[in-house]
Amino acid sequence: MLNYKSASEKDLQSEYTKLKDEYDAFCSKNLSLDMSRGKPCKEQLDISNDIFDVLKSDSNFLSEDGFDCRNYGLLEGLPEMKRIFAQMLQAPEENIMVGGNSSLNMMFDTISCFMTKGINGCKPWLLQNKIKFLCPVPGYDRHFAITEYFGFEMINIPMLKDGPDMDMIEMLVSSDDAIKGIWCVPKYSNPQGIVYSDSVVKRFASLKPKAKDFRIMWDNAYCVHDFCEKPQKLLSLYDECLKNGNEDLPIMFCSTSKITFPGAGVAAMAASDNNMKIIKDKYKYKTIGYDKINMLRHARYFKDYNGIVEHAKLHAKVLKPRFDTVIDSLTKNLKETSVAEWVEPCGGYFVSVDVMPGCAKRTIELCKQAGVKLTCAGATYPYHTDPNDSNIRIAPSYPPMQELKIAMEVFCISAKIAAIEKIMKQ
Ligand SMILES: Cc1ncc(COP(=O)(O)O)c(C=O)c1O
Question: Which pTM was predicted?
């Protein structure tokens, strides 16, 4: 296979003609394939169907502490669910709050809460001049959408092989008190699938922010979503923070969205006593209590944290071949061209591909014209602006395997066409 960067113009031209023929052949097939969002496929949804048999009209609806789950109350959620989430979030049970059907919703609420309630003796963020947030990139578009919604200035932090650039984070948070937070997906980050190393977690736990109201938004959405033989371990941020007297720094989130059903699972958060006091004070106005029947259903279905881990393995069986298909296709079609790079993840929901700088938009456009939908270019960056126009997020979970194979063929051809066009122009 041709290395595009060192190939002659003549060779590139004939490669381009060949690729265009292949591309046109795909276009004539009227494909309609979707690799845009990280949604579980039907096979994965079916895994959890028997959760609906757990509760019936003649079931006992009492939680383990005797609370009737059909009624109002228990703002913090069922103790049996708190115990499970404590292990998922690696934080003490008494610092867990179980919420509704979405962790993203709890993240939004947390920021909204800090807008109107000051933390650590500081003014509410709404009354402070400027609020800045650090955004490891590439990252999760919906995180950036929340901080954009509240009008915060977002600062890109490059992701390195074992987590975000900690030198840059330490330098920025220790010198600028307008920086109030950072978004983190510490295990199988969205989209690169990177697991933060012990050193990165320890450095987060020992940050010395200039702003007394700086908080780490630790979104552990993929805490049990391993699909390799040896799952990668994440150090407990909360434990590390405790060692440094920094337990007020992190606010942690997760949910069962991609374990049972997205939008119909159970979400939770963990935070120190000081943070929880402020957060619960807001929740008590917001709701009398979340859906405890769904919590009970989940608690009885899984029984304990180990039940969650075992269930996640069933998802892994469906997901692994899909991820293998994506990686195999990238390796076979793009490796030797040297115009694309990617990270091979061991879990999570995405594969992040960096095509040749200046080629992401064009690659996505070519895919679209051939009937393959990808996440929009720039979506993995704040303000939808990828300064290199290079990052593309691939979501392999949703399309059936056969379709995924075809979609990846189209993707690789498109990335190659876009790269040759760019090189020729230069
Ligand atoms: C990093 C991350 N956090 C949160 C979510 C959404 O979680 P939930 O369904 O609990 O709101 C997603 C969904 O893709 C995600 O990738």
Answer: 0.97
